[in-house]
Write the structure tokens for this entry.
Amino acid sequence: MKKLSLKVKLTLLYTFFMVLLTCAALTILFSLSSREMLSSVQARLTQRVQESIENIDLRGDEIRLDSDFYSVSHDVYLAMYNEGMYFMYGRLPHGFRAQPELSDGEMRTIRDGSREWYVYDMSCRLSDDLTVYVRGVTSVTDAEESFAVTVRLALILLPLMVLATALIGYRFTRRVLLPVRRITGTVKEIRSDADLSRRVGLTDADNGKAPVHRDEFYALAETFDGMLEELEEVFRREQQFTSDASHELRTPVSVILAQCDAMLSDESLTEEQRSQLALIRRKAAGMSDMISQLLFLSRADQGRQPIHRERLDLSELTEMIIEEQQMLADGSGRGIRIESRISPGVEADADETLYIRMVSNLLSNAVRYSHDGGKVEVILEERDGEVRGRVRDYGVGIAAEDLPRVWERFYRVDSSRTETSHSGLGLSMVRWIAHAHGGDVSVTSEAGKGSEFAFYFPAREENEKNKKSCFL
Ligand code: ADP
């Protein structure tokens, strides 16, 4: 019952009650009408016998009868007997062979083989020495059989009626629950592509969907649309704020960086002053990176991040990124080696700047979270029309409970471990870039043993079958 939809549950419920009620009503009706039917058969029999007696006449020695004494009316057969049970006139039904004693004014039920009969006798005194009896006979079995036909008909019609009611009820419930289906559909669409501009749109006359009456569900859908409207506005304002704030911060940070560079070139600085200035410069450079990542993400949110895909030799480009990252790693003096297994001639339609950003981010993370003297591996290949890349390190790794959250903005597994200049925005960007190329990213990791980040996307733009929406 749990898995059934609400409309099926409702349909089953009222169909069940409908069957119950109809069965109860029919049982009462049939038991009452069967009794009623038998008593009306008896009444007809008595009446027919009485009417025939009223029309009997004695003219001299001759008994005169009404002309329809011989005819069978309302299934009642009439016969006349004298007191000695001698048959004088009339007809008896075929199959009625019993010869019960005459019994004046008594309704009797006579069983004759498999059939039952009502027999009603009535005496008529024609003269002082002549009394005759009129016997009326009618079949109970025939009356019961014609009633049984009605019952059978009702029993055939009942399931048909129930079926029709269930069908009509199902369609009705489906129609009433239409707004709920639309709300569910809208929520699913929003969840799959994070497009808050979607609406349930029951009032929208041009949306080609059936009009819906203004009931409670309609009000719910309307409230839902109102809430989406507000949410969209809040998100829009938040994105605008991030974008504006990042823009405003860019200039002062650039000024700080330029001033630091200028002051560091001053030969008269003491060692202490030089190292203090270098620290300020490092922090300002970190801030500048963070601001550019924030700008990137807010542009992506607003759908303003441009993507220019062109045919690129990714093997060559990846080798170049590795070289650059190796130089940076060497500069830190931690003795980290980057090894690569790049399939030659991997070509794809990709945005060069975004691809460099994605791979550089994964590589710089791998280097940063490796142990000193550790090794980082990069694999790139093309398989089944897809570019697949992996960046593996043997460093600190990520605990299982943190893994699903590393793609979130500003999420840092251990903020005390990472430098404050690392804001936790890098992987959000990596994921957005993979989605923007119609692909995706994944991570496997074990705390203390290292991590492997993988990305894939279709090598050709037209191969993007189920392109993921570019949201983070
Ligand atoms: P950040 O700029 O702080 O590195 P990211 O979004 O790139 O931000 O990464 C988010 C968090 O995921 C990091 O703070 C770090 O804790 C974790 N992380 C990312 N890459 C690795 C890795 N290769 N090994 C271990 N932890 C990682």
